[in-house]
Amino acid sequence: MAEQPVFAPWNDPSEKPLIQFQNVTKRFGDFTAIDDLTLDIFEKEFFALLGPSGCGKTTMMRMLGGFETVTNGTIKIAGQDMNKVPPNKRPVNMMFQSYALFPHLSIYENIAFGLRRTSMDKGAIDARIAEMLKLTRLEKFARRKPHQISGGQRQRVALARSLAKAPKLLLLDEPLGALDKKLRQDTQFELMDIQEKTGTTFVIVTHDQEEAMTVASRVAVMDEGLIVQVATPDAIYEAPNSTYVADFIGDVNIIEGRASQSGNKTKLSWAEGQPNIIGTTTRTFETGQTCHFAIRPEKVAISVEEPTKAANKLHGKILDIAYLGNISTYHVELPTGHIIKAQTANTRRLARRTMTWEDPVWISFTDTAGVLLDR
Amino acid sequence: MRRAILILTPYLWLFALFLIPFLIVLKISLSDAALAIPPYAPQLDLAGGWSAIKDFFAGLDFENFEFLTTDDLYWKAYLSSFKIALISTALALLIGYPIAYSMARAAPEWRPTLLMLVILPFWTSFLIRVYAWMGILSNEGLLNQFLLWTGLIAEPLTILNTNYAVYIGIVYTYLPFMILPIYSALEKMDDSLLEAAEDLGCSRTSAFWLITIPLSKTGITAGCFLVFIPTLGEFVIPSLLGGSQTLMIGKVLWEEFFNNRDWPVASAVAIILLLILIIPIILFQRNEQKQREMEG
Fold it and tell me: A47 in helix, strand or coil?
C-alpha cells in the first residue's frame, strides 16, 4: 500500500495560500480588536480560530466575509485584494451562528436563494439543490419552513445554503453552538466528511477547544487580537508555545522555576529540597532564566511504590480524586504545596483501586513528557 | 365556572355594546321617518300584546335601502370615501414605512424615545389637532405665510377646504397606526438575515425587497387595515378640513341625522357602511391569525 501523502501545505513553500492576512489591524473606536495580524490559510484546509470571547476571532471571520472593513493592512483571497469588495461579490459564503435562515421561505427556497442570484438556469439550480439536500440528508424537509424543523436540521439547512454556491471559502461562525453535546459530536464528524467531499476550504470560529481539535487541520489560538500559536491540533496540544496555549487547550500542570541547560537537557530548579525537573527542549534558556514546565495530567504516572526508572519522580499525597468513569484524575499535593494532576485510565474496577484519599504516592514522568516554556 | 365567566365576559360586552345597538340601528333603518320624538315609526309597544307586535313588524320595510339606490349621492359618497381611504392608506404607507424602518434601525437606546415621539400626538385631543391643521393650512395660515416669506409662491395656496387638506389630515392622524405595526415587525427582524442575503449575492437593495419587505408584510397589512378601516367612515376630518365638494359617507351620515333628521335613512347608510367594513375587518383578523401561526 502506497503511503498517503500528509496534508500539510503550510510546510510547502511552493504552495500558494488561498487566504492571506497581511498586517491586518481592526479598530473599533479606540478598541483594537485585531492587532497587526499576518496569517496564511491554504486551500482545502479546515482552519479553526479558537479563543475566548472577545479575542477577535469573530471579527477576523467577519472581515473575511466582508461585513467589517479592515482598518489597516490587506486581506487577499486567491491573490486578490478583498478590501474594497462587498460581501455579495466575494467567493466566500458564511454560515451564521444564528443560522439566519429566511423564515418566510421554505427549506428548498432557502438553499436556492444564493443560486437564484446567479445566472444559473432553472434546471441546473434544481439539480444543485437536489445535490445539497442529499449531502445534508434533508430531502424529506424541502417543502417545510424553517420553524417546522428541529435545531439540528436547521443547522444542516444553513450548511447546505452556504455550500450551494460552491464557494472557494466557507466561513462557519460557532456552527454547532446551539446544538446539544451528543448532536454536536455527531455533527463535527459530519462537517469533516462534507468538507472532504466538497473540497471547500473551511474556516471555523469556535470557543470550544475540543471542537477545534476534532475538526481542524490547523488551529489558531487567539488572545486579545493576537494569534498566539498556529499549528496542527497535536502540535498545539503536545508542544504549546506558551503557558496561555497550554492552559487554554486541555488540562495542564504548570510549574515555574529557573532553568539551567546542559546539552539537550534542561534542568528546572523549582523548589527548595526538591529534585530538579529534567526536561527536553529545543529552545535555549539562559542559566537562571525564569521558565515554566508544562505537563499534561495523562503524561504523569501515579504509583504507590517508588518508581525505579523514571527521569523525574516526586513524592506527595492524594488530595482529591475526580472519578470520570473511564479515567480518574488524582490531585496530588507535594510537600511544597504545589498540586499536580495525574490521570490514569480506570482499567480496574473502582472497588479494586489501590489508592485513596490521603495516601502517600509517587508521581513520575519521563524527561520528554513535558515542555519548557519561556512565557 | 371561572373559565365560563372568562369566556362569557367579552361576549357579554359585545352583546350589550355592539349587537344590541346594532339591532336598534337595524330596526330604525327599517322604519319610516315621522314627525315625532323619536323621529321614526312604528314604535314597539309591548303593552299592546301580540297584535301590537304583529303590527310593528308589518310596519317595517326596506324602503330606505331602496331609496339609497335611487339617489346617486349615496353610492358616489361610498365610492368617494373608498377612494379617499385607499389613497390615504397608500400615502400613510409611503410615509410610515421609512419612518418605521429608520426607527427599527436606530440604536437600541434611541428606540423608546422615537416610539414615544410617535405616540406623543395622542396626548392632545384629536379634535384640537385637527383644528390646529385649519390654522396651519388656511390662506393666512402658517404654511402659506412661510411659503410667501421664502418667496416660493406669490399668491397664497388654497389648501384648506379641499381634498388635499383632507388627505393631509387623515395621513397625519392615522400615521401612528401605520408606523407601530410595521415597526414592531421590523424590530423583531434579525440583522444577520440581511447579512446572509448579502453573503449569498444580494445587493443591499435587493436584500431589502427580498427579505425586509416580505418579513414586514404582516406589519404592512395590519397597518393598512388600521388606517383604511377608520378612514372609510371618517367624519370629523372631511367636515373640518374638507370643502363642500369633499364627499365622504361619514359626512353624509351626519347630515342625514342632524340636518335632515331622517334617522331611518341615516341608519340605512350606517348599516351599509358596516357591511362594507366587515370584509376588510375579516381580512385583517385573518392576517393577525396568520401572523400568530407564523410565530407559534
Answer: strand
